[in-house]
Design goal:
heterodimer; A: alpha+beta; OB fold (Dihydrolipoamide Acetyltransferase, E2P); 6-stranded antiparallel sheet; 5 helices; B: Gyrase A, domain 2; Elongation Factor Tu (Ef-tu), domain 3; 6-stranded mixed sheet; 6-stranded antiparallel β-barrel; 20 strands
Chain lengths: 128, 370
């Protein structure tokens, strides 16, 4: 459910270091909470963001939520497939359901995010 | 939280539950989109046991209850249903209701969970205690309106295959039951009431049954090929696609039937509680109107979004979602009269989502009248 090679935020984004660039999406927990995703609004490539800036929007039948930049960076590429197939966010949250790629990311900020174990403990705390 | 007689059945099927007006109800089983599409294509079961049911018996009670409903129930032929609502003295909507004429002496009324306590009190207080000497029963319980809500479960069977499914279970009485008609029949020795109505826009039936047989009937229905359970989530997207308002969300006591776009159901020739302010409002015109709106794409308007024309606030969204069968965002919004005209371009919510006023229903291929 929560791959070891990812870092996680309290807002339920994941980020993966692909060596030079990073890929961002939302976690299985987030997609489960949202339910069926019906629309994704993606950022403009080239957009610059600080950690915590809203970069995308994800809408489900039930609700709409912002997706935040987990770390500072510049949007290199977005997952155009989500415009036609937003359900990929539910079906494949860590693979085909990615949102955007960032470059110029700070390694220090990445290390400040939760690893899989800490994130799962954080989720347990939410249920309590 | 209260549980329906079908709670254990739903839990065993993997339902996710939600609190709804004090009830723990299934919001989804496999997923809202799948359940929505299955209902449009085949047939789904909905546990609606939280709803209110009342039996009105006898001439005095029938007359008293007719005065509480804005639709004419006196002229309602045996075997037919009619949509109406119960208003307060100022014309505000306490709840909407479906009235069903079961016989010359009996009217069955179905209402919602939210205002049930108030509705029950209003109905029972309006009903005079029978005073004729032939009535030998105890004075204290001779009320001719019985609140059957606690003893009654309700299963909605909705979708184009609904008739086939009920026929397979031996409900021959529904073979020729027409839209908005009602009949009584038996199942497992128990008397059940079946109306051909629902809240999805599809061919469908509402089964009113004693609590104790609800689980076995639910299981028998599910055993028929093609039948699946569906939750409140799909019920909401299905009803909104056909433009049906939801009591407590799209109207309450602060709204009149004219504002809620229910004027066509009002029996203007009869007398009913709340009629005078309604007649005055109709004559004055210019009231805000619950209006269907759509977005140009998959983005959805949401409950509580302000609606603006330029910089001016002209209304607010009460229901909104993505419409799975229409492929775009849909909603209902109270709009100032001048902004409610068909084809008006407006902006909704904090991100100025473009919306256009349109005619209901959004989804026009429903099978409810076939």
């Amino acid at each position: 459910m929560y791959p070891d090679n990812l870092r996680y935020t309290r807002e339920h984004e994941w980020i993966r270091d692909d060596g030079g660039t990073c890929t961002v999406g939302i976690t299985a927990y987030a997609s489960e909470q949202l339910g069926d995703v019906t629309y994704v609004e993606l950022p403009r490539p080239g957009a610059e963001a600080h950690a915590g800036d809203a970069l995308a929007v994800v809408e489900s039948v039930k609700a709409a939520s912002d997706v935040y930049a987990p770390v500072r960076g510049r949007v290199l590429e977005v997952n155009k497939a989500l415009e036609e197939r937003p359900e990929l966010v539910n079906e494949s949250p860590y693979d085909e359901g990615w949102f955007f790629r960032l470059d110029d990311v700070s390694a220090a900020e990445m290390n400040g995010l939760m690893n899989a174990d800490v994130y799962q403990a954080f989720l347990k705390g939410l249920e309590a | 939280m209260r549980q329906t007689p079908l709670y254990d059945e739903c839990r065993a099927l993997g339902a996710k539950f939600v609190d709804f007006h004090g009830w723990t109800l299934p919001v989804q089983f496999t997923g809202i989109l799948q359940e929505h599409e299955h209902t449009r294509a085949k047939v789904s079961l909905f546990d609606c046991s939280h709803m209110g049911e009342f039996m009105v018996r006898g001439e005095d009670a029938l007359r008293a209850v007719d005065r509480l409903l804005f639709c004419d129930t006196r002229g309602l032929p045996v075997g037919k249903c009619r949509y109406g609502a119960i208003l307060n003295e100022s014309g505000g909507i306490i709840d909407d209701a479906l009235a069903m004429r079961l016989s010359d002496e009996e009217l069955y009324i179905v209402t919602n969970a939210g205002p049930l306590e108030l509705v029950s009190r209003v109905l029972q207080e309006a009903c005079p205690t029978r005073t004729d000497s032939s009535d030998k029963s105890d004075r204290s319980d001779t009320s001719d309106v019985s609140d059957l809500s606690d003893a009654t479960a309700k299963i909605d069977v909705q979708g184009p295959l609904a008739r086939e499914v009920l026929m397979k279970l031996g409900f021959a009485a529904i073979a020729r039951l027409k839209y908005y008609h009602v009949c009584r029949t038996k199942w497992s020795g128990a008397e059940i009431t079946i109306s051909r109505a629902g809240y999805t826009g599809e061919l469908g039936y509402e089964l009113f049954i004693p609590n104790d047989i609800a689980p076995s009937l639910w299981r028998a229905l599910l055993a028929v090929d093609g039948v699946r359970p569906a939750g409140l989530g799909a019920r909401d997207t299905l009803r909104l696609e056909v433009g049906y308002p939801l009591s407590g969300q799209d109207f309450d006591e602060s709204r009149t039937p004219l504002e809620a776009n229910l004027g066509r159901f009002v029996g203007w020739d009869k007398s009913f509680v709340g009629k005078e302010p309604l007649v005055a409002q109709r004559a004055a015109g210019g009231y805000p109107l619950l209006t269907p709106i759509r977005t140009p794409d998959r983005r959805a308007p949401r409950h509580g979004f302000e609606v603006r024309s330029g910089d001016e606030v002209v209304g607010a969204v009460t229901s909104g979602t993505f419409g799975p069968s229409v492929g775009h965002g849909i909603g209902l919004a109270y709009l100032r009269a001048d902004a409610a005209a068909l084809g008006t371009q407006l902006l909704a919510g904090p991100k100025a989502l473009p919306v256009e006023t349109v005619a209901a229903p959004f989804y026009t291929k429903g099978t409810c009248r076939i």
